[in-house]
Specification:
Layout (H helix, E strand, L loop, with lengths): L1 H12 L5 H5 L61 E5 L3 E3 L1 H14 L5 E5 L6 E5 L12 E9 L4 E7 L3 H13 L5 E5 H16 L7 H6 L11 H6 L5
Antiparallel strand pairs: 1-6, 1-7, 2-5, 3-6, 4-5
Amino acid sequence: MRNLKVCQIKALSVPAVSTMQSCGMKHFPPPPNYDHIQIPEKSKLKFIDKIPYLAPGIRPPKMQKRLRLMRGPETVHNFLIHKQYGIMALGGGRLKWVHFDMMRLTIGRKMDPERMFAVWRVDPPWQPVTRKGQGQRMGGGKGAIDHYVTPIKSGRIILELGGKCEYKEVEYFLHDVAMKLPFKAMAVSQEIMEKTKAEEKWKEDNNQNYYTMKYVMQNNLGGCHKWMSPFDFKYLGKYL
């Protein structure tokens, strides 16, 4: 009888610990639903030709530099059609055929074609770039066509990648491709683009600095008109 009372006292002195208190309550959200996404038959990026196709008997035309094709913001192809992931240019530049092939091979090796797909959002190389041979004198007309390029503006979506996958699965190789391009670019998702646009609008609406770039340029503060170009007036120093 005495041993039974001692056991009862010891049992009452030990605090009761439940499983919920020791482990904590866990809440895992349900995985995203990808039932509405359809994978096309050819899920990988298409092969891009080095030279644009011309009808037989047509001489390949030459062209000026046309740097305006790389200046300023992109106003048309600046959003994701499939609302998933892609690579966006942060500055102007030119894409050569070697860059197209690098993107095609890298993404083709690292993506899962059974549940992912990728599409181009830029045209194949179409603008001719001429070059004269080494050691030639100045003059004598425009040189021969050396290669073709695709001009890119800031904010242009270069390619899109989608499918039954999350951004964390594709971010690492999209970032790897973006770092190898000849201009600044970044891997983006639909959420990142919406968040960036909202932040830019918030900064513009809540700016407390009276001397904005637009005000400085329009009022010629510090005599800035001496070293400004027409593109500075047009884009207010945002796109170089």
